[in-house]
Specification:
Helix content is 40%, strand content 20%. The protein is built from 25 helices and 21 strands. An eight-stranded mixed β-barrel has the order 1-2-3-4-5-6-7-8, surrounded by five helices. The longest helix has 19 residues. It holds the Pfam family EAL.
Length: 618
Amino acid sequence: MQLRPHSRFAAPRIEDLIIRRDLSAVFQPIIDFEHGAILGYEGLIRGPAGTSLETPFALFSQALAEGCAIALERAAARTCIEAFAKLDFDGKLFLNFSAGAIRQLADAREDTLALLRHRGVDPRRIVIELTEQSAIPDVGNFVPVITALRTAGAQFALDDYGTANASMNLWVRLQPDVVKIDRFFIHDIACDPLKFEAVRAMQHFAQASGARLVAEGIENEADLIVVRDMGIGCGQGFFFGRPHARPARNVTDDARDALRAGHIAVFPETTRTLSSASPSGGMASEKMLVAAPALPRHATNNDVLDLFNRLPDLHAVAVVEHDEPVGLINRRSFMDRYALPYHRELFGKRPCMQFANASPVVIEKSMTVEQMAKLLASDDQRYLADGFVITDQGRYAGLGTGENLVRAVTEVRIEAARYANPLTFLPGNIPISSHIARLLGNDAGFYACYVDLNHFKPFNDQYGYWQGDEVLKLAAAVLADVCDPTRDFLGHVGGDDFLILFQSEDWRERVLRAIHLFNEGAQRFYAPADRLAGGIHGEDRRGNPTFFGFVTMAIGCVRVEPATGASLYTSEQIASVAALAKRRAKLETSGFVLIDADESAALLRREDEAEAAPEHAD
């Protein structure tokens, strides 16, 4: 007898879940960095545990299909308010709403206030977050809605800024009290120069507009320290706590320790890995081109649907007229619309431009990534979600994605030539001075270590500049390897001179390891006969025949005490004292010298009185 497969139980209707109050709330803390305290909690909704509707995405997707998304939003808010009141926590409650739900909330302001009063929640503790999926056709008519909510005591926030509909246009016109930076920009910001620059641009505008920034998606200490040191005041993410029905009342010990960490961040704008830079200084947009079919302007919405069904990996489709792009249709937005009841019957045969973005981001195929990076500073950031159209001399060539754009831009040089050494791509004198100033300004203790190579000039003369450059790149790679990129700043002063600003507690072990690794590695650049002889014959600076041993590394260090360094040194003086320590290190067999604060002060006085002695000959 053939067995029949088990039938799957149908998911309950959203309206039934609302009526039965079969929804629950969880809360994620939002941290105030300055005070090391919980500012408030974001209320999030969950469906019945263990069912297909447990996650918010599943809930709202089903609600959209049933045509009751706003009713679900209101029920979610009521559930969060009631659960938050029972917790009896201090701080603010952040609630997510679409634009349509916010309009209803403002229209029924008295009912909303009555619910809050009934539950004992002061309206001034409520922050209304406009979700990123919410398109607002007429922003001008939406301003009074926000004004009505503010009059009731609530604050207004833009959620997930930098993606989808959370644009600078809304920021300017709605003037939010709070702007939450999307986790895309915060995740790995400690090692991503482009994300760092994008967030810094947001920070500058927040300072001008008076908005408070909240960095979402903080998951590790390195990202937290960078965000903290940028001056962003608040954060949210798994590092502080996952959403929970009974979240912590206080900041965890790990998070508090990280917030109070004495070291300052090494900003990614001044961090350079030797393999990440593009020698050509740019990358053509054609390398990011996605070959994708386009539709003519007279195509229907049914044609768009058929194309998306045939090509499930296609993120968007361009609309063209006479081979020139006139619109762009985003898959997710389009399919979300078609999920609504009777949508296909009503709109299927209508022109596809009805739901197209008639002003898509269009870039020419010959444009470099450096030029495209300016998109991050523009008001229109839809390219992150929608992608963009790539043209060849104005004619449609294909599509590009926001993800590929960000990846490509992060792979090219960030610093201009005068900010980064063109051979090693390590930060040059300007970033070095800037980082020393930050260390001094934050009263951070550190070790300034000046690095030089013994006998480098004779090697360069004997083997040529090509081999000399390879030795310099070895030195840069060895030094980068011993540095903690989140704590230790490595710069290339020029030639065979480097500077490390150590905040790592085991800095001495790192210094000695660098000397050992370089001294061993440098010998491979010598010819076999010279390796056997232990060096090369050449002439000193006076033209006298001299035997020079292998190229070796010398590192002179000076300790800058926390809280006193700024009163004793300027940035230039620290570099100068470290250079004097380096001269001593070149005379030591170990290649290492550390001078204390008293001795460094004496050296500075001596340098002011007379010129420093000539540097020891290589």
